[in-house]
Predict the 3D structure of the following.
Amino acid sequence: MKDRSVDEVVARLRERLRPDQISIHSVERLVYGYDATWAEGVPDVVVHAESTADVVWVLRIANELEVPVVPRGGGTGLAGGSVPIAGGICLNLARMNRILEIDPVDGVAVVQPGVITYELQKAVEAQGWFYPPDPASLYMSTIGGNVATNAGGPRCLKYGVTRDYVLGMEVVLPGGEVLRLGGRVMKDVSGYDLKHLFIGSEGTLGVITEVMVRLLPRPSALGALAVAFDHLESACEAVVAILSSGVLPLMAELMDQGVMRAVEDFHPYGLPVEAEALLLLAADGEEEAVRRDLTRMIQGVQAFGGRVVRIANDAESAAYLWEPRRQVSPAIARLATHKFSEDITVPRSRIPQMVRYIQQIARETGIPIVLYGHIGDGNLHPTLLCDRRNADEMKRVAQAAARIFQATLELGGILSGEHGIGLLKLDFVSQAFPPITIEKFWAIKLLFDPKNIMNPGKKLPLPRNYS
């Protein structure tokens, strides 16, 4: 922590925080030194915030002493975004976990950042409402983390990502200033829309301490399909054709054969593991509309050789049909000592071409790559299987990842659809943006965080002429 001792920082923090809100023991600090990647770093101190006032105090001290601050929610990130690589203070927001309000008149909910995504969904659904964003980690991830990474999920094909549901927020800046951005209204062009700078900012601008989200009426009916394909490319082409025909599924998820076999070994669901690919499709809305959309989707997949292996006509059976998709990450983790999960997004018309590139890269580098993802919106998760202890293999992993990113950009895609840049993709950002754009990113960063204490070393590479 630069020239500041841990003792000095802890002494200042203790002026307003209880002892049980500050963790300095080495074992306690280790717990907050990693996320769902293989990145690691140990904070010098962990602060368990319980209120906006706590966060204000921490950021005031950190800014004064120039100590790095890494905000943390559920620790489920897949880009190293909450890993404290520079030490400093890990600001744990998990205790700020209250749903403050559900307003059925305005159709909004107000929550603290530590609220688990699934808990919010359950709470609003009990009142007939619907909060669509559903990242795969929804049983563990927090709303604050979802906002900080602009999280998506399968339902975002139809309903959009987290950004589309954030109406307002409370944010604490370095130095302790509190901003309230946005509000309860659905339309607002008064002033600059600063809240959108914080959505997807990965904790590099300030700390989100309260979020107001808009809710939708809960759909009355739900149906789903599981469709097997003998050829992976055919599954990709079928999705493009369905979307181009005017049908907008609730979800369109892809699992290749390697992923299916991993899931089936992890928890038997009766998946068609002899097939090269499985598509999971769903529709929601009024019952008649759901039946119509499912029929059209069946016709669409059959035109590309798809075989419908399961149909779900109600919410309960649809949830079971979709459960294998929720098990993908832990199932893949059993295939190798380590995995490197990517998060690329390409225009949907170029999904088949991107899949061919990935298959070619796997063959040429000798690195096994399994593929799954939100194929309906072009968001793919090619996952590289490896052993970090094997230096030669890790060189080939780096080559494979670089080639995947290069192919993504060549096809007009982006480096991350929902996981964020964090630490793991930092070296590739300069390929995605020209230098002048990165300089403007830094101008925004330093406007809010002039001493660069907020999650340093994440999201943004250093600008040119940096000294």
Observations:
- The chain has a mean pLDDT of 94.
- The two ends are 20 Å apart (CA to CA).
- The chain is about 35% helix and 20% strand.
- The first helix runs from residue 6 to 13.
